[in-house]
Amino acid sequence: MNNQVLRVERKINADAKRLFRAWLNAEDFSRWFLSGELIGIESVTLEPRPGGKFLINMSLNGEILPHTGEYIKIEEPHTLIFTWRSHATENRDTLVTVTFTELSNEKSENSEVSLKHPTTLITLVHEMLSDEIQIKNHNHGWTSILEGLNKWCE
């Protein structure tokens, strides 16, 4: 089995703590966690603690697609590590690490004072994917999901 690794990054104008908590609050999570235009969220159950499990039921064309996993590490507001299993991983456990890095506020051109807009770099690394098809599909999904988080923060 190949250990294919996918890395997706996105800068979002929000503080790391808010973004981190959006991954652990089921109500917020269900508002932004969409992996594509045709995908919906049927239900979300999260147990945000190490060893806690999650279930995300996505819907596509009337079919429910369960995505499950277990939280390995929750280090607020910097690191979130969890297993990820779905039809798109051939129902095998894979590993996802999400890191939240606050970027320093940029200086305005005419001032030494920082602008009051926190920006966070989210880096998502998905490991243990089996082939290029899984890389391609998950790249699309995770990119759309991070775009959904960005829109939710606006």
From TrEMBL:
Family to which the UniProt record says this protein belongs: Belongs to the AHA1 family.
Protein name, as recorded: SRPBCC domain-containing protein
Superkingdom of the source species: Bacteria
Occurrences of domain Activator of Hsp90 ATPase homologue 1/2-like C-terminal (ranges): 13-151
Classification via Gene3D superfamilies: 3.30.530.20
One Pfam assignment: AHSA1
Transmembrane segments: none
CDD domains: SRPBCC_CalC_Aha1-like (cd07814)
